[in-house]
Amino acid sequence: MQLKGKVALVTGSAQGIGKAIAVALAKAGANIIISDINLELANKTAEEIKALGVKTMSVKLNVADATEAEEVVKQAKEAMGQIDILVNNAGITRDTLFIRMKKEDWDLVLNINLNGVFNMCKAVVPLMMKQRFGRIINIASIVGEMGNFGQANYAASKAGVIGLTKTLARETAPRGITVNAIAPGFIQTAMTDKIPEEVKQKMMAQIPMAKLGQPEDVANACLFLASEAAAYITGQVINVNGGMLMNT
Ligand code: NAP
Question: Average of pLDDT values for 179-183?
Fold first, then answer.
């Protein structure tokens, strides 16, 4: 799957799944914009990826800030000439049972995980429409499809991302843009490292493959959706979950 000459902007890509996605797209030849709230780590990741022989740039970006999102997209377009692939990966959790969930934690998760995707799409879609080409890949979650104890805010945000994906796919398909989501199950990253061991064991019992996924498992699905091989696929949710949830 070749992406030579394409430019990809990946949010929250200093580490974890976003970094694995950036590496996979770079290995296929794409030039990469690493954007993350953690600029120091973003700079380091961009340097590592540059060693793969592609152009990179790193920028500080809080996806929840619409003005910052617009500014980063403008800078990236100026520096790289175009944006062909947008991967909305930045996301956080603030887990607790609904009964104890504070309004601040509801708002924070929705602002980053859902409004963040809105902000980035608002900034990038007009460029893609002019180009008559674009690939948008939104990182949702299995939790947005099935819910999960202690994750009302997170589940609602990811279900929202799925709804946004399907609507944007319908609206932009005539302009050569595809919009898809990936719904990872439980993937080994800093996000899941926080989960207590006993909860992890309970989750593992529900996974037919009996192991957590790796960031590269999600990255491979993302590479496929970004590539020419997925040209006729839009509005879909691709599950990468070891068999934990099987949709029709
Ligand atoms: P991660 O290891 O925590 O990495 C996420 C990155 O995004 C971090 O560098 C984080 O910076 C950054 N970030 C946080 N808030 C941001 C903001 N407002 N704007 C820009 N960047 C921000 O998480 P991950 O596990 O790789 O998850 C990546 C995506 O996959 C998320 O959308 C997550 O919901 C989704 N996902 C993950 C799993 C899983 O099992 N890991 C499963 C399903 C879906 P800081 O560390 O400084 O906050």
Answer: 98
Domain-wise residue ranges, the chain:
7-188+216-239
pLDDT value, residue 89: 98
Distance (angstroms) between ligand 1 centre and the Cα of 92 equals: 5
What dotted CATH number matches 7-188+216-239?
3.40.50.720
How far is residue 47's CA from residue 92's CA, in Å, rounded to a whole number? 25
pTM above 0.85, yes or no: yes
Catalytic residue among 85, 90, 150, 154: 154
Cα separation, 164 vs 205, in Å, equals: 31
Task: Provide the 8-state DSSP code for 229.
Answer: G
Best residue among 13, 36, 186 to mutate for probing ligand 1's pocket (most ligand atoms within 8 Å of CB) is 36
pLDDT tens digits, 127-142:
999 999 999 999 999 9
CA of 244 relative to ligand 1 center, distance in Å: 21
213 pLDDT exceeds 80?
Answer: yes
Q: Comparing C-alpha atoms, which of 198, 204, 189 is closest to residue 241?
A: 204
Closest listed residue to residue 54, CA positions, set 85, 15, 88, 17: 85
Tell the burial category of 247 from Cβ atoms under 10 Å away from its Cβ (0-12, 13-18, 19+).
exposed
